[in-house]
Structure formats: structure tokens, C-alpha cells
Amino acid sequence: MAVVTHFSISNCVRKTESNKRYQENEQKAEQELLRLWSELFIVHDNSKYFNKMKHSRKKETPLPRLHLISSGKESSDTNTPLLNQLSLLPGSFPCMVQIREKQLNAKELLNLALKARAIKAPEETLLLINERADIALAAGLDGVHLPESGCSASKLRPFTPGMIYGYSVHSASALRMAEESGADYLLFGPVFDTPSKRRYGAPQGLEKLGALCRSTSLPVFALGGISPMNARFCMDKGAYGIAGISLFQERSRLAEIIEQLYLHLHP
Amino acid sequence: MIPSLPFLCVITDEALCPVTLAENALKGGAVMIQLRHKTASGSQLFSWAVEISKRCHQYHALCIINDRVDIALASSADGVHLGQQDMPARTARKLLGKMAIIGVSASSPDEARLAEQEGADYIGFGHIYPTASKLKEFSPVGVEALRKTAAIVSLPIIAIGGITIENSASLISCGASGVAVISAVSKADDPSKAAHELLCAIQGREA
Q: What ipTM was assigned to the predicted interfaces of this complex?
């Protein structure tokens, strides 16, 4: 009979103690995490990103005003819409890009995130992933976008120093929760009619967008049915920026669309 | 219980409250609870993880989270269990640190050996027998595969899949350090009693 030495009760007790210590001495834990981080980045050879994280870039630079969300059609291929999109981003207009691929398992997601990270996108590009803070950490991404029902950002931050956290919000209670857990930005939609969200009923509309923007000091990205034609209306209601999925899917027009949107984005 | 005697791991059943099930399993002598729920939201998983960890630590047992390394890090869980479709153990180790417990599912000696090389702490090996708990894309691996695997890896092996009181003892003689069950405990009229009886069966003592 094999003698179990790898996880014993004493190990378990030690672990519990280490958790206690962690709570008691957050600073020490942070140093330990930074050490773990450095190990990570030696492996992924991404020292540029590590420096960025150490200095918590979001406090230095305002968030980009465009938020591109992946199509949900990513695969393990080498040439996917997301990877194409990242390589085609125009340099002069900063964007944040969210990997949102619910159909992929964690292994596939991690591989996609690592590939996305390796693409040479413009310097200011921020790469986020939906929900999975562990994959963000493992792939050296810049942040995590949480659904309303996601694990609270305040619980995830202790082991993801410097990461950006955003929340989808659809209600006043969700807004309160996002604010309390220290969100960096909010995503609200669908503002206008959009085929992908039709099954959830009528769009939220500009008035609700305006009400949300007035009730929070956090930057709000408007999502859903937005085009270079109507982006201005969202900005007039107090939106900080524009988010979209299909809006950014047309490869040949990506740079042009981003450029057009940026014309409307500055208040 | 552990380290020298065969032990019991109970995996949560998606149809039941995982906290209640964990509590019952711990009362029955389980030393490892794996929180496994593929459709629950992140906030729900987190609160379950916190509650189950608390109970596990009262019983000096381990709380392991399936797939979600972030939930394990955010809660006070002891580690993660990773399937072949999840993050590699090597990556999870970098995120979780040396103290965390990392288990990896394997269904062949090769997969088990790879998991050992990747730094896993234990192997979840199976499914040994036909099981209704999960829809499987491959047929049961059987006890011979378990014996072969136990011969080539030095990590503790937890046998999983279709385990009952009747067939459990032979797994230990094939080299498993413990067994993991879902329905044998969750679907029992008295889950705590079922856990206790299963534990007695693998330890070769009277219930």
C-alpha cells in the first residue's frame, strides 16, 4: 500500500496557518506574490509586462476609450479572428481587448491568451479576459472583465496586483456591488438593438445609460448596437467609451472604424 | 486516517447543495472534498469554497477546487483538481505556490506519468468502472490500468469512477491510496453513513 506523504494532515494544518498569516500580514503576502510573479515572468519572458504591473499602469494612464470584445468563435487555430484583430490594431488609438470565449475550456483559453499576449499589438493595448483571473495571471494579461455574477474583484485583487477589473452591470444593485468591490470600469448594454442580444428583450436605451453614468463616478463603456454614427449619443449621455463585438469584426475596416469612433470619443 | 490508511475523497454533486454534502461527507470520515460545479457562477463558487474550506479545516480535511485556480486562490481552499482539459499542473503550481495541493485527472499510465513530471501532488485515476455521474467519451479503464499506473508513478493515486462499497477494496490492493466518489455518497439516503461505510470498506475494517 502506498504511503501518502504528499498531502498529510500536518500539511493541511500548515496551509491553514499560512492562510491566517496571509490575512494578518498582507504586505508579506504581497511580497511573496511578487516573487511568484517574477517566477512566472521568467518563464513567459515578459519582463516589460512585469514592470508595468509593478507600477500599476492604470493609475498612470487613463483607460483606453474603446473596448473590443472577442466574437465567441475562437478556436485552437493559429489564425483566429482575435489574433488577426490584435495584429491589425492601429497604433495611434489605444484599445482594450477582452477575450470572451465561453465555449473554450481552461486549457484552450490559456493557449489563446498566451498567443494573444505574444502578438505585437500597439504599446497601449490592454488585454483582458472574461472572468478567469487565473488565466489572466498565467498569461500575463492586463485585467479581468467580470460578469455580474462573477467572483468579487476584491477577492481576486490580493493575488493579481495591478490588474484592471471591470464589471458588466445591468441594475442598481449590480452597480453598488461593482463599486464596493473596487471596479475600475463598468460595461453597460445593450444600449441599442443588436442581433446577438435580441433574445434578452428590448435594448436598455440611451436614457438608462445616462442614468447609470450620472449615478457613478466610474468610467462606463456603452455596449450594443453602437456604430460610428451613434457613438456620439452615448458620449453625450456621459459614457466614457464604447464597447463592441460585431462592430470590430470586419478585418478590412477595423482601423477605419476605430479611427471614426475616436473622432466622437473626446468629450 | 491519512497518511498511512486508505482515504476517501468526496466530490460534490451538481444536483445537491455542495456545502451540506461536504459537511455530511466530513462527518462520515472523508479527508478530501472536491468542489466541482461546471455551471455555477464565480461568486457562487467562491462562497461555496469559503464555506466548504471552513468545514474541511475543522475536520483537518482538505478542500480542493475543480478547474478554477482563481477561486482556490481567492478562497481559503487547499488546492485544485485539474482535468486534462484544464490548465496544466505546471502553470497552476506557479500560481498557487509550493504549499497548495494539485491533483490531476489521468486515464492512462502515460497521462499519470506526465502529471507527476508536471508537479502534481496526486493523481485522480479513472474512471475505473462504468459511471452514471458523468457522461464519458471513453470506456472505463478498469483495475488493470490502475495497477500498471501505480507501478510507474510514486504519487498517491485516487481511484475514481463507479466505485461502490463492494468494489472499493480491490482498488486499494491494486495500488490506489484512496478512492473518490460522487453518487455513492451523494445519492445515498444517509450520505454521512455511506461515507463512513465506504471508508471502512477501503480500510478493511468493520463499519
A: 0.94
